[in-house]
Write a structure and sequence with these properties.
Layout lengths: L5 E9 L3 E8 L5 E7 L3 H20 L10 E7 L3 E6 L6 H7 L7 H21 L2 E2 L8 E3 L6 E2 L5 H7 L14 E2 L5 E3 L6 E2 L16 H4 L8 H15 L9 H11 L5 H5 L3 H7 L1 E2 L6 E2 L9 H8 L13 H10 L10 H4 L12
Antiparallel strand pairs: 1-2, 2-3, 3-5, 4-5, 6-11, 7-10, 8-9, 12-13
Amino acid sequence: MNHTRYELQCLLGDGTFGRCCLARDTQNSNQVAIKIIRDVKRYMENAKIEADILKDIRKADPKGTSGCAVMYETFTHEQKYYCLVFEPLGVSLYDFLKTNFFRGFWMQDLQSFSKQCMEALKFLHESLKLTHTDLKPENILLTSMLPAQPADFPREAEWNRRRGKSSSAWEQPTPYLRPVNSQIKLIDFGNATYEDEHHSSIINTRQYRGPEVLLASGWDERSDLWSIGCILMELYAGEQLFETHEELEHLALMERIIDKLPQDMLGKASPSVRDRYLSRDNRSGTWRIPWPDKASNANSERHVASQRKLVDQVLPHHRSFADFVGKLLRMESNKRPSASRALQSSFFEDRFDD
């Protein structure tokens, strides 16, 4: 019966699962976003699992202040389409980056994003004992639907230098844009996992996977913190921190940008990972990443060799940002701060003009 309550206004986007539309709630004239799931058994089952998690989130966060998307209700349209009704939100941080020609965000906005992500993770990890497991720029949405504002791009010279173009010779593709405000929400809880549930061996989109996931040595909620560290660097630089499609290259990139993988961590890798991606010294028994000797090709070797250490990837006056991200990207998950602890970082007290 609920389908008569909502008037569809426009299409917000299409996905594998179905589509998302903006609609008007005729009962109160409020705008809502409706996720309409395709009539495919697997997608419907997943959507119902996500809806149950979103109900738990709403119950624990009735005022909608946790930084997680708010779902109002679900209904089935024409006994065929399962629909989830959400608060309307703006574009994803990935889409915003793309529109901006992958020029990074202002540090003021990044500082705000960092804080809000930690607050949302504190809520998920502590109040619900829930790990998101699929954090990426596509799953973080600006809350405002208002159009972005033209602004100066503070790191223009650095951006041009990285691409080998001088500012004078290179016309900017489009005016640089800045969101009207930096409020964000996490979305897509379809793969979220409770502490006491079965933990699948592979989680996350590849580029946001922590080393413990790559090594199949067991993960917990702190894998979310690794993902946020990768995301923040991407939102700063405009490109993925670990741009790769291969496991071994990924591990080599981690060692190049962050630090050597600790012995005990390599030792805890699953047997199949050890067989495929690690080498052991016959005399000392120590494990290592066989790089560059087992690089798939010369391009891969060059790609890894061209990477700079994390701290060298930011401008000197953004050092506290690199320090903050560096803590989220500690190799051993038990050495990463909890989201609560990360909120106490001195990075949040710094004032930035850019």
